[in-house]
Design goal:
By secondary structure, this protein is an all-alpha fold. Among the domains are: 124 residues, Cytochrome Bc1 Complex, Chain D, domain 2; 46 residues, no CATH class. It has 22 helices and 2 strands. The protein has a two-stranded antiparallel ribbon.
Length: 451
């Protein structure tokens, strides 16, 4: 009896192991939809389903390993969780893969559970079909988008032609009246009273003439002055760049932090144009555009072509996954450019003045609030397909900001350093509660920006 129970228990254990092993081998327990999410979160930096990136393509990897190497998903579990330990154990195939891909060590994922790995493998075996995009959200392009504009243009042309026709009829009527007047006796009397020269007109109306000349001189002086004052002000300027870069896709749709690319804005005076190596941090593995957002008039082929320009500039061969050494400089067109006689420090505004600037802007613009300090000067950059100058960037514009931006007196440095000034302003401006703005601590001094 004891022997039968012992064999019975061993049989159940063996059947359980067999079932779990077979399910694991064929990936029947995995959830492809959850596996897709896990794949995108953990694997897309180095792998794609249908092509080699840094690592090999993973579509059908379970069946491929089984047929070519005789390995099951248990090996894949070990490889994914800790490939370094698997290689150290002397596993032949693990070391072959390591050598084949230039000894590029794969990341370790001890945080993934067995269920997570099964879901990922199920996704690589049977990837779910992509969901069709909603037609209601599709942006009309081509003839559909141009139809309203064409209709409006036609209406404008028709109205203009009618106005011209009316004007011609009116001129003909007046000419007819003049002809009749020339044929009447009244014309002789008018000829006797008319002024025969410009000098006679001037003598008769010289006060009026001098007044008009004075007004014209004032208007001309104002026009010249106004033209001079707006030299170098290019609000709305948005030039085309040699490589198309949509901030709406990168900063808006994908929520990429501004300082990931413009890192020196936080630590230096100038916010530099990112090098192409910064682009390659992502686009080394992103060789095509698969986003849902498409700018009107542009399609996936257009975006893919712009990515290829990045590869040409950096000398990257996506097929071999290596640099060729043949690079091409990119001649970007600068948009924001302060004059040489102006000192402006980005880090001072991005770090020290960050919260104060955001609070001041949101207080003045309750219906157009910002969450990033960069937007106070550069506008809502995450909505721009083509970057443009969103503000005047004039001296008056900067001074107005310094006069209205209140300093945060709650941080330890300001509270201690400006203690006496704070007490003085409380007495000087009791109605405002002694609020300290940037101009009160030297924000309007000439040497602050010009030295």
């Amino acid at each position: 009896m004891i022997s039968w129970r012992k064999h019975y228990k061993q049989t159940l254990i063996a059947i359980g192991l067999l079932l779990s092993t077979s399910a694991s081998i064929y990936g029947q327990d995995g959830d492809p939809k959850n596996g897709e999410k896990l794949f995108k979160a953990n694997c897309t930096a180095c792998h794609a389903l249908d092509k080699q990136v840094i690592g090999p393509p993973l579509k059908g990897v379970v069946e491929r390993l089984k047929s070519e190497q005789g390995l099951d998903t248990a090996w894949l579990h070990k490889w994914i969780k800790d490939n370094k330990a698997l290689r150290a154990s002397g596993d032949k195939y693990a070391n072959e893969v390591f050598e084949k891909f230039n000894k590029t060590e794969m990341l370790q994922f001890p945080n993934l559970t067995d269920k997570d790995i099964d879901d990922i493998l199920a996704f690589t075996t049977n990837p779910p079909a992509p969901e069709p995009e909603k037609t209601a959200e599709t942006v009309p392009t081509g003839d559909a988008a141009a139809a309203p504009a064409d209709k409006t243009t036609t209406n404008i042309v028709i109205i203009s032609l009618l106005a011209i026709a009316g004007l011609l009829v009116w001129i003909l009527i007046k000419l007819r009246q003049l002809v009749k007047l020339g044929q009447s006796e009244d014309l002789a009397g008018l000829n006797e009273t008319r002024v025969r020269s410009f000098s006679e007109i001037y003598q008769k109306y010289h006060f009026v003439g001098k007044g008009l000349l004075a007004i014209l001189a004032i208007l001309a002086t104002y026009g010249i002055w106004n033209w001079i004052m707006w030299i170098g002000v290019y609000k709305g300027y948005k030039p085309e760049q040699p490589i198309y870069f949509s901030h709406k896709i990168h900063a808006g749709e994908n929520k990429i932090d501004c300082q990931l690319c413009h890192s020196s804005a936080k630590y230096g005076k100038v916010s530099e144009i990112p090098s192409m190596n910064v682009c390659m941090n992502c686009h080394r593995t992103i060789s095509e555009y698969n986003g849902k957002y498409l700018e009107p008039g542009k399609d996936k082929t257009f975006y893919d072509g712009e990515i290829q320009k990045i590869y040409a500039a950096t000398g990257w061969d996506p097929a071999k996954q290596q640099y060729t050494g043949k690079t091409q400089p990119v001649e970007w067109t600068r948009i924001h450019n302060m004059p040489d006689f102006v000192y402006f420090n980005h880090s001072q505004h991005v770090v020290a003045g960050e919260q104060a600037i955001i609070n001041s802007f949101n207080k003045k613009n309750p219906n157009n609030k910002i969450d990033v300090v960069c937007k106070a000067c550069h506008g809502k950059i995450d909505t721009m397909n083509v970057v443009q100058m969103a503000n005047d960037f004039t001296m008056g514009w900067c001074i107005e900001c310094h006069r209205t931006t209140e300093i945060d007196m709650n941080n330890g440095y300001n509270k201690e350093y400006f203690k006496n000034l704070h007490d003085k302003l409380k007495k000087q401006y009791p109605k405002d509660g002694g609020k300290i703005t940037v101009d009160a601590i030297g924000g309007l001094e000439c040497g602050k920006c010009h030295y």
